[in-house]
Amino acid sequence: MPGGIDAHVHLCQDLETGPLGLGGECADNFETGSRSAAAGGTTTIITFATQTRKEEDRSLLKVVEAYNSRAEETGSYVDYGFHIIIVQNDADILENEMPILMNDWGISSCKLFLTYKTQCLTDSQLLDVMFAARKNAITTMIHAENGDMIEWLTDKLEQKGMVAPFYHALSRPPIVEGEATNRAIALAQLIQSPILFVHVGSVLGAANVRRAQTMGLPIYAETCPQYFHLTWDDLKRFHSPTCFENSKMICSPPPPLSVSDHEDLFVGLANGTFTIYSSDHCPFRYDHPHGKPSGVLEHEPSMEGELEHQHEGKELQDLLRRKQGAFRFIPNGIPGVETRLPLLYTGALAKGRISPQRFVELTSTNPAKLYGMYPRKGALMPGSDADLWYPEETFRPFHLTNSMLHHNVDYTPYEGTEFSNWPRYTILRGKIIWANGEIVGKVQDGKYVKRGPSLLSQGLPRADRDPRRVASWLYE
Ligand code: URP
Ligand code: ZN
Ligand code: ZN
Asked: Among 140, 186, 283, 369, whose CB has the most other CB atoms within 10 angstroms?
């Protein structure tokens, strides 16, 4: 099959260089993250260069240059490109720098947030950035959760003492994604802009996407393994007053409530509601001050007052609460770049839920088309890069443990899960980089991929035939 393209990978985002918020720091850099990708059959990753609200981060070009140097510091085992996360609607920057991002860097996609205080844009700010992106043929990716709903519910849960990791899911019921997807679809329709919803995790979100697609709107959706292999119950596993292991499963949107949701989401994989299947690899260590809470308090709670006095820092307070397992302070995200293809193989392809063609579309061809890399990537054709992966020829089920993986994270959410297959070879531009359980490539093998505009959103019919219904005069 064509090499896997994982279009949603977080690497090298830390307290200084990226707004992951909540004190989180990526445990993987380009070396360890790309090594893990290669071992899981993936030959191209797209990671996030992230603007912050700081004055020195106004310039998107500076953000990208700084992020690029993080990639060049170590090199990469697989090919890589960048999305840009935009958290400021700065008119000058958008007008002057977006064309350079597209033309000089080949960055043809930006991610915008409807949640997280440090990243969230208002509706009019979203319109500003989406409009600028549309004019530059840059695809807008949307993190669709209603941040105000989450904040409000979190306050209410905290008032009732419901702060354990499990309540993360109750702070984000499906309507949180349902509202945000509908709103973003309306904004996109207003200005005739294609959008891609990242990490859609609810049946309601998927249904909204489906309805918009049926109207002929250029709305695309990504989903991820956690929405097919985890449920709310996984946020309850292991919980005790001193053990916060279930924080390992915290991601946003949260996993669905039950396995019947999985079944509904599988339909979306099969029928094309979901365009791409990415990992949203967000590597936090469990046992690390900037990771998930390990549950081990470094200081007795009784010292909290004293520490507050010493450091007078809200940050320290937040760190202590994270250590105590309060979900508000737990960084959101789980690792999965290496398990992505094997999980879809095991859970969907081997079970007959999707065809081999659909498997290739979701994991390689569609991300290549959507993000402007096709047909160099995502195809086995004369002239394409010879990126491939081969499964094992025979069915050899085994149970995964984290020590088998190649990331720099000290856990996998899929510990103990049975897999029916694993990539035997991964081949990058004709060179074998993973063979029979060994990394055989070099960390210099991966090259930066300069991308073009999306091939998916071109030439789509207008949903609203009368241009007065939508603001198409904006582009005249
Ligand atoms: O919980 C998640 N998804 N963390 C990763 C960051 C993001 O929003 O994609
Ligand atoms: Zn997101
Ligand atoms: Zn993400």
From this structure: 283
Which ipTM was obtained for this model? 0.96
Which residue type does 446 have? G
* Residue 282 CB–ligand 1 contact under 6 Å: yes
> Would you say residue 33 has pLDDT above 50?
yes
| Pairing state between β 423-428 and 438-439 | unpaired
The pLDDT tens digits for 407-448 are 999 999 999 999 999 999 999 999 999 999 999 999 999 999
Q: Which ligand is nearest to the CA of 332?
A: 1
What's the average model confidence in pLDDT over 191-196?
92
Question: Which residues hold their Cβ within 5 A of ligand 2, which is an ion?
Answer: 143
Give 298's pLDDT tier (boundaries 50, 70, 90). Answer: very low
In the reported structure, the alpha carbon of residue 468 is separated from the centroid of ligand 3 by a whole-number distance in angstroms of 36
Sorted by sequence, the CB contacts under 8 Å of residue 84 that are 6+ apart come out as: 48, 49, 50, 51, 60, 63, 64, 101, 107, 109, 110, 111
* Domain 4-465: homologous superfamily in CATH: Metal-dependent hydrolases (3.20.20.140)
φ, ψ for residue 452, nearest 5 deg = -110, -175
Q: For residue 251, give the ligand 1 atom closest to its CA.
A: 1
What is the longest distance spanned by two Cα atoms in the chain?
A: 68
| Token digits of residue 300 | 């007795």
CA of 73 relative to ligand 1 center, distance in Å: 24
Query: For residues 39 and 35, what is the distance between their CA atoms, to the nearest angstrom?
Result: 6
Which protein residue has the closest C-alpha to ligand 1 atom 4?
Answer: 333
Distance from residue 3's CA to the centre of ligand 3 (Å): 21
Q: Give 3-state DSSP helix, strand, coil % of the chain, rounded to 5.
A: 40, 15, 45
**Preceding peptide of 254 cis, ω within 30°:** no
